[in-house]
Amino acid sequence: MQDNKAKGTDIATLGEFGLIKHLTKNIKLKHSSSNLGVGDDAAVIDYQNKKTVVTTDLLLEGIHFDLMYTPLKHLGYKAIAVNVSDVYAMNACPKQVTVSIAISKRFTLEAVEEIYAGIQLACENYEVDLVGGDTTSSLTGLCISVTAIGEADEKELTYRSGAKVNDLICVSGNLGAAYAGLQLLEREKRIYDNNPNMQPDLTGHDYILERQLKPKARKDIYERLKEANIVPTSMIDVSDGLSSDLMHICDKSVVGCQIYEEKIPVDFETHKMAEELNMNYSTFSLNGGEDYELLFTVPLDKFDAVEKIEDVKVIGHITEASKGNYLVTRDNVEIELQAQGWNPIKE
Ligand code: ADP
Ligand code: MG
């Protein structure tokens, strides 16, 4: 468990403008569409004849992350990754981000530098330019808000509303891993809270921890779909859990769905964690949030093409709306999908 209040440089020695200058001094713009970045009243972006997509997420300490076990560099990385993931879910290419941050007094300059190291690493990995933001102080916790901006050809944009009857339902990677990681971290935190002399035991769980603390946006899947000339009929990134997110597609597309439990990809470590906690791993894969995998539909005649894409699985198909939204279990029982959704506001 970490201590973010360790001694370091007081931010007050730089002041707001000094801090912004310090944090943004190494930024080099990569894209020709980034006409103007940090330093004026607003950034200037030019996508010429493409469509622009814009998406924002807000991360609040105590609601979306816990600094007891979240390394600041990972947090910065995650803030960017979850936003570019939304851009990929539109089948668009992220190009710019803005980062707004509210920091409490207990943060040192070194702590903020850590957050920015994660932000910059993610900006490099996802090839996006940091073109602006806002910086202020917070009386309570840390708050990070990122806006991601991207481009796409109009005919390539993919909405939640485009799924058609008989389309195949596909998902990238595996599901439930980020939730399994969260369960582990919360368990170890409870043990530590009860006895601070106990050191957390996280060995053998590297994969699910990484999925929770440093999630990946599926840039690779976006690129492979493009290479395969596949424009999904609908797409969403799995942030609230497979059930909820698939139901968003069904709602918006006015269709039903049938997915098969045995086809839902689940990693071995997720299985193992569910077992340790005496839980059903399908609960993790259906309802666990924050996987940031891409869930999409393609026409039936794309079956061969989509099967060839590494790390993509077909898990079911779209049905008439009147048939409802169903999961077929391993025992061949049909269960209606529930939108349990990972929504911190409801907790
Ligand atoms: P304003 O008063 O017009 O909001 P600021 O002083 O807040 O201007 O910001 C000055 C410049 O620094 C702007 O270009 C803004 O986008 C950028 N900026 C401010 N905070 C951040 C940050 N946390 N990360 C990146 N850029 C930032
Ligand atoms: Mg400002």
Features:
binds adenosine-5'-diphosphate, binds magnesium ion, Phosphoribosyl-aminoimidazole Synthetase, Chain A, domain 2, 60s Ribosomal Protein L30, Chain: A, seven-stranded mixed β-sheet, alpha+beta, 10 helices, 347 residues, four-stranded mixed β-sheet, 2 domains, flat, 23% strand
Can you put this structure into words, describing what you see?
It is an enzyme of class 2 (transferase). It catalyses: thiamine phosphate + ATP = thiamine diphosphate + ADP. It comes from Ancylomarina longa. There is one protein chain. By secondary structure, this protein is an alpha+beta fold. Helix content is 33%, strand content 23%. The protein has helices at 15-24, 72-88, 109-125, 177-194, 206-213, 219-227, 242-253, 268-276, 281-287, 303-308, and strands at residues 34-36, 44-45, 51-60, 93-103, 129-137, 143-152, 168-172, 234-237, 256-260, 294-298, 312-319, 325-328, 334-336. The strands form three sheets. The protein has a seven-stranded mixed β-sheet, with helices on both faces. Helix 4 packs across helix 5 and helix 4 (177-194) runs parallel beside helix 8. The longest helix has 18 residues, at 177-194. The protein is flat, with a radius of gyration of 21 Å. It binds adenosine-5'-diphosphate (ADP) and magnesium ion. The site of adenosine-5'-diphosphate has 14 residues, from helix 1, strand 4 and strand 5.
